[in-house]
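Notes from hallway chat w/ T.B., transcribed later so I don't forget. T.B. wanted the structure written out for a chain they're using in a teaching module, and asked if we could keep both sequence and structure tokens in one place. Agreed to drop them here.
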Amino acid sequence: MIGRSLKRLHWQLGIIAFAIAIASLLILQKSERSIRSSSAGKSYVKVAKVIDGDTVRLRDGRIVRYIGIDAPEVGKPFYKEAKVANSKLVFRKNVRLEFDVQKFDRHGRVLAYVYVGRGKEEVFVNAELVRLGYAKAYTVPPNVKYANLFVKLQREAMEKGRGLWRNKASGRGRYIANKRTLIFHRPTCPYARKIASPNRLFFNSPIEAMKAGYRPCRECNP
């Protein structure tokens, strides 16, 4: 009797596991179809929620992380300002997604270049946030399609002292860069102390480091 009950239980658990696997596969296929449709036909979807300065949730439930830029995280300076800037651009508006080589990150979020408006009124949201100084250029290969544009716009924002760079345009100090990682840090940054002497390079300002092709550390926010 007990043996039959256990056998029936194992059979039921097997059915449940199979159903879960099928459901997961259908969800993944739906997401892939949605991406192909958006890429080919310029379809639009409404933004339901702005999570932060570089991430939104769409009405269809997908979480979209903007490619090539990085806005301040919770608790960091200019987090609220960056989120507000992103909200003004896309909240409750229809947006178009453009994709690069890698379509998802390790968290399962959709990676995309986001556009709002249509025709001549269309705005490239990723680029606009960098231009306004509310996000930094942050390129992660293989998604490098607009990397040069983002770096150019960041230099402009830094030189004009916009947003994140408001108090840094004319700031002077000793910034330490890593020749191997192409990242520069504040002298007090723990990562700066770990840079081997042969890989160290010094700059007088963030702008100088950026013009040399280095990007700011996300930890110390130089």
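Follow-up for T.B.: The two ends are 71 Å apart (CA to CA). Might be a good example for the class.
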